[in-house]
Amino acid sequence: MHAPARETLAHPSRDEIELAAVLHALSDPVRLLMVRGLAGAIEARSCGSFDVPVTKSTCTHHFKVLREAGVIRQRQDGTKRVNLLREDDLEARFPGLLATILQAAGELPQPTART
Amino acid sequence: MHAPARETLAHPSRDEIELAAVLHALSDPVRLLMVRGLAGAIEARSCGSFDVPVTKSTCTHHFKVLREAGVIRQRQDGTKRVNLLREDDLEARFPGLLATILQAAGELPQPTART
DNA sequence: TCAAACGTACGATGATCGTCGTACAACGAA
DNA sequence: TTCGTTGTACGACGATCATCGTACGTTTGA
Asked: According to the model, what pLDDT value does residue B107 have?
């Protein structure tokens, strides 16, 4: 077991994304926070750039849940692993779902704008 | 503890409905089935009228989860307990959410139509 | 009055979940 | 090369979950 796990980043294909899995993934407050952060970002964000009240291990766990549910895509980039929402795939599979949930989660997150 | 539980039907008020709880409630395939059945029905439906692959006790449990999440409202009617979706409350709290999820759950359920 | 139907309550069980700490691997910079 | 950064892997822990069987209460109907 010396192979770097970086090769093992399994993502479900678009058609394999299941509604129940997506809803379950988004039913955790921490993960909802992560997804909101991802939705507000233009660029893919590394795991460590999130302000969530859990340790690194737990963070890894949550990103794995989101990835395996098909909500996010993870890609290795040097020592960082960057995450981005699979907005297109989700929209194709479940139209309007992500946007509606994000809106229900308390409007869009305002990264640094406060007029 | 001889009081019939029929008095103890606690429902969250509209403003107490939480997104995470709703998503969690809907992240179970059996409950999703129940909600779809409820959405297709015009009248409130009794617990026993659902075609779900679980026993009665489990059914009771699932309806309780749905009720406590604020997804359905339960009312006693003779020996039956009837259920109906809290569409208005959900729409007011999380606009579009229920409809979007129901649509994602595989279009509208066709109770007895098969042209 | 008696029995059947409907659904609950309670307890149990095995599975999954969210959380953490520690140890380790990979990469980048000095 | 060496060190710090980033994030994972692997247990482990307690909590919650989905499921069931059995026993019981309530209402309806014969």
From this structure: 55
pLDDT digits (tens, 9 = 90+) for B28-64: 999 999 999 999 887 888 888 898 999 999 999 999 9
pLDDT recorded at residue A115: 27
- Which range among A75-79, A81-85, B17-21 shows the weakest confidence by mean pLDDT? A75-79
For residues A82-87, average pLDDT: 94
Say yes or no: Cβ of A56 under 7 A from any atom of strand C: yes
Q: From the CA of A37, how many Å to the C1' of C24? A: 29
CA-to-C1' distance for B77 and C1, Å? 24
Per-residue CB contacts under 7 A with strand C, chain B residues 60-79 = 60, 63-64, 74, 79
Q: Which residues of B touch A97 (CB under 8 A)?
A: 100-101, 104
Secondary structure string (H, E, C) spanning chain B = CCCCHHHHCCCCCHHHCCHHHHHHHCCCHHHHHHHHHHHHCCCCEEHHHCCCCCCHHHHHHHHHHHHHHCCEEEEEECCEEEEEECHHHHHHHCCCHHHHHHHHCCCCCCCCCCC
